[in-house]
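# step 3/5: fold
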Amino acid sequence: MKIGVYAKSVRDSRHEQGFVSLVHTLADKGHDIYCSSSLVDYIHIHIAPDMPVREFDFLTKETPELDALICVGGDGTLLDTVPLVRDSGVPVLGLNTGRLGFLAGMDITELDKALHDIQRGNYSIEKRTLLNLETTEQVFDYSFALNDFVIHKKETSSMIVVHAFINGEFLNSYWSDGLIIATPTGSTGYSLSCGGPIIFPTSGSFVITPIAPHNLNVRPVVVSDDVVLSFEIEGRANSYLTSLDARSQSITREIQMAIKKAEHSLNLIRLESDNYLDTLRNKLNWGFDSRN
């Protein structure tokens, strides 16, 4: 099989151990390994100088190239794979060497069995909704996000006012530090920490969550993912921050923005041992008696 390997960093000992184990296991099983140029150099310098490794930059619908992509790290590393796989449909599996691991759920002890199951097709594909940001001027090189789109005030500025619209119809004016538009995947991230609800992956919805709203009666709102959300910004500052997952850019309020569901999705590999409800309970410590 043609397996891509991605890691944001292998300097941390946890990530390095997972990366080295993965590369050796793939090579021993005869799989073709694909990496970014920096990881190819790392493999040849620190792991095996003669190991055959091919380079890849990003994938497209026309050139899917890989059978699967495995990322080594935490959930943030898996978010970084969105600009890599793009609309190619290549399925992604996360090898969790980070902390929480909502998305990157495979432990290094499960590596051999996971590769065995992938080779034999013993897994399911979970299609995760992506957000698509449209702007009047280009802001991001790749305008899609798996977790969320965030409008946020600059560090030193006072609160901003975000006027939000659904399909052109006025929804609300949010006097706050910012606004989060989260997918079901992102509902367990930044949105959850700001009081947003947990949305199941197949719910077909977005959640609009204000960040530190001035009016305490303004609460998160769940909307269908077939709508178009647009925004107008007011504030004392001339610019503010926008982010797509972990990618942030400064933007002026003259630029118009709209968010909608992307036409393609991210295909996550779900192994037989990987269950979303188990993940919720384990990662959020549901049912855990802290008195023990």
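# step 4/5: annotate
Residues 13-28 form the longest helix (16 residues).
# step 5/5: archive (pending)
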